Sequence to fold (117 residues):
Amino acid sequence: QLQASGGGTVQAGGSLRLSCAAPGSTFSFIGMGWYRQAPGKQREWVGTITSDGRIDYADSVKGRFTISRDNVRTTVYLQMNNLKPEDTAVYYCNRGETRLPGRLAYWGQGTLVTVSS
Fold:
């Protein structure tokens, strides 16, 4: 079961750190992805971290967001800096490295991030 947390309301330029718990003995062997869904829009890929720590980001967040993971806590993190109003969305994590969220059948609980201008 996937559960994201850490969302909230922040002013533009602010920061938030999201966490996503992904229980399971295979956590350290799999990549993890972050995704988001803004109001009225389709879910989109934010970034992924592979099992060996390689990270990719969507161009829209590159240089502002940082993904990390803790294999002992089976948790993946999303540090978001210099937030913009267009970052407002519900954020989710998921197992795997796909950039196409439509390919994922299961979604756990997301966390809402609201960035005010």
